[in-house]
Amino acid sequence: MLKLLLYTHDPEVQQHYLKALPEEGAMAVVVSDFKEFFKESNTIPCSGVLLDVVSSIRASQFDREVIQELLEVYPSLRLRLDPATGEIRTLMTGAGPGQNISIRKFVETYCSNFLPRCLRMCQRKPIHCNVIYSFHDQLASEVVQRSVTMDMSIGGCFLMTTEALEVGERLWVRIIELMDNSPIMVEVRWCREWGQKMMVPGVGLHFSVISDRQREEIRTLLDGD
């Protein structure tokens, strides 16, 4: 049975989303508070995340941090219910502007091919690595930008930048401090624009294509003091 995480605060809205799931082969683990959820169970293997937009806006700081980490790991679909019509509007990370995909299609196309991973907090640390990044995989010197990571997990990192990037865009990054600092393909999962509160601007990145050696080096950084 395929399992997905559904994050929503509203029980009535929740029912609309659950009814939109495929009738067979999929179920949703409903979460409204991650602190409470992790107290009871944190090893549920999931294949995707369904995220109610209104609930995510109203989420606690802790829940927002967890959501950001989940977006770096799992296929994810943002949902918004129109209470007047009952229509569910969707936006899939990386699907491109203007694309609306049904929950059923999301599950069948993306989640069914995703190897289930246990739902747990990724270890995230404020690690500052020097990075160059580009829209081109060769990272030629004339087309790269220089930046620094503000934090890092095994699944991705937060990269400081004032550049206007879109969710779903693919970049190539070179993390200078890694022994194997060959380009890593990443995908933008969320953005924080310059001037948005008193916070560092940048993008949350998911490591899409990364070597085993690079992942182990990052794991060593996370395990260090």
TrEMBL record:
Protein's name in the database: Type IV pilus assembly PilZ
Gene3D superfamilies xref list: predicted glycosyltransferase like domains
Domain PilZ: 122-223
Superkingdom per UniProt: Bacteria
A GO molecular-function descriptor: cyclic-di-GMP binding
Pfam families referenced in this protein's UniProt entry, alphabetically: PilZ
InterPro entries named in the record: PilZ_domain (IPR009875)
Species this protein is from: Desulfuromonas acetoxidans (strain DSM 684 / 11070)
